[in-house]
């Protein structure tokens, strides 16, 4: 925990590689079960990983870059449309809202957009550092993923040297949590891919602009239960309104998005994550706030597995405590 807290930023490529290797190891183990040697299974899985990475970089990044550029070009027009819509509200509903309230709201939004633009400019000024980071991730991460996979047994033996002699409780807890985390992470990755693909196909079919960009963030939004789906409703509604205005197409876009979210929550999640997470919604949201605040994206990604780990540790701790006192 202390290493992650104080050295997390420097060791991010290591953690990213470890997470990817953890995900890919399940595929290698599946191949080993059908009598494929470990070396061959690792090579096949690693080549598949490299091919997927190549397709994403060559096929996805240009599309996303183009749509982000188009969105930034049309952002002033989108803001102007929203401003005009808000300014007409006091005329239609004078008993609920006033011109002064609208101006205050617009001033607040303008200030937030100004800060956002400043942040983007800061990022662009640091483009050299960003380029170096991309090079580090592009070269180092695949190499480390390969060594994590090929030397898994050796690395685990090395880690075991640092465990205390009386580590029975820790081993017991990890045995329970390991399966939970494995199933959760792999299930969540499949959920992201499926929601992303279905949303992209749906938005492309109805002709919604920036379909790839919106569908990608819709897929990533499943990392944040409850909050992500609500948060993504706004950009989808704004883009749909900017493209079609009030009308049937706007309603169809929001209805399609709503159906995707309903199917995800009531069909996909129970299918992919059945029996994995048994936490109260309050515990889930608290874990998202805590771990997301500590470790950003990866904290959000692993918020529920980490909450499951904490829950298992506390449960085993008190069970052990009661057992000692009973003796």
Task: Report what the structure shows.
The mean pLDDT is 79. With 327 residues, the chain is an all-alpha fold. 86% of the residues lie in helices and 0% in strands. It contains twelve helices and no strands.
Please outline what is shown here:
With 327 residues, the protein is an all-alpha fold.
Write the layout of secondary structure elements.
Layout: H1 2-7, H2 12-33, H3 38-92, H4 99-125, H5 127-150, H6 152-160, H7 168-206, H8 211-220, H9 227-244, H10 248-272, H11 281-301, H12 303-326
Helix pairs in contact: 2-3, 2-5, 3-4, 3-5, 7-8, 7-10, 7-12, 8-9, 9-10, 11-12
* Oligomeric organization of the protein chains: single chain
N→C terminal distance: 33 Å
Rounded mean pLDDT score: 79
The class by helix and strand makeup works out as mainly alpha
How many DSSP-defined strands?
Answer: 0
Strand content: under 5%
Low-confidence stretches: none
Major β-sheet, in short? none
